[in-house]
Amino acid sequence: MSDWLSRVRFVLLLVVLVVGAAAVSRADSAFARPGGYVSAGIGGAFETFHGELDPRGHDVSNAFLVGGRVGSRMNRFASLDLGFDYTVTGFELSNDDAQSIDASTLLGFTNLKLYPFGGRFQPFALGGAGFLWASLDCTDTNGVAMDCGGAGFDDTEVAFAGRFGGGLDVYITRHLAVSGELAYVMPTGDLSDMRFLTFGAYVTLRF
After folding, report:
1. pLDDT at 20 over 50
2. 183-207 confidence digits (pLDDT tens)
3. Would you call 84 exposed, middle or buried from its count of C-beta atoms within 10 A (0-12, 13-18, 19+)?
4. Quick one: how far is CA 82 from the chain centroid?
5. Average pLDDT over residues 124-137
6. Has this prediction a pTM greater than 0.85?
7. Between residues 108 and 57, the one the model is more confident about
């Protein structure tokens, strides 16, 4: 009799484990399912300039940015999107001689995200590439606008840029998530000195 009860308990426990695993699997698939999404958010950027833009001897203000993403979760492990980050308040470099360069930027890119886990909490690694557009406003020692060519730059520059980093998606419902993201931007060409680190918080709507 005791052997029979032990077998019944074992079978019941096995059923509970299987049902529980299936429920978790369904929950994970609900949050990691294929489909489209849009995101919008705000954040900031820290300069890591070097070369001709090396901030030594300059005061450099950090930037405030807004951003957006439109993309598709291709499968359980990956998503691909198109995105932009725009510095509403740009970087400003100034020195003791009162010369300054104010740089506003627009970063447009294609972004690949890789997800090792499903569920409500989904960390991810990201990598992408695109372009960086920079508008540079330069002033002389008297505060008068000047051609940025005198500082070694054109007033407007566009260059190819790479981008990589990581973050975390937290699902509130199967259609709504909030995300934190950290990424390093590395432009090339004439803007290769303008490297910076972005961070942001985003709201994501899943379809």
Report:
1. no
2. 999 999 988 888 999 999 999 999 9
3. middle
4. 11
5. 92
6. no
7. 108
Collapsing DSSP states into helix, strand and coil, what is residue 147?
coil
How far is residue 124's CA from residue 134's CA, in Å, rounded to a whole number? 28
- Which of 198, 136, 135 is CA-nearest to residue 162? 198
Give dist(CA 186, CA 148) in Å, integer.
Answer: 22
Structure tokens at 72: 């598709």
- CATH architecture for residues 34-206: Beta Barrel (2.40)
Q: Is residue 154 within 8 Å of residue 148, measured between CB atoms? A: yes
Q: How many residues make up the chain in this entry?
A: 207
φ, ψ of residue 9 in degrees (nearest 5)? -60, -40
Structure tokens at 53: 């833009």
Question: What tokens appear for 34 in the block?
Answer: 């294929």
Domain coordinates in residue numbering, the chain: 1-31, 34-206
Whether 113 and 126 have beta carbons less than 8 Å apart is answered as yes
Q: Is the dihedral of CA 7, 12, 15, 20 positive or negative?
A: negative
| Nearest to 184, CA basis, from 144, 127, 111, 131 | 127
Spell out the alpha helix ranges (H) of the chain: 2-31
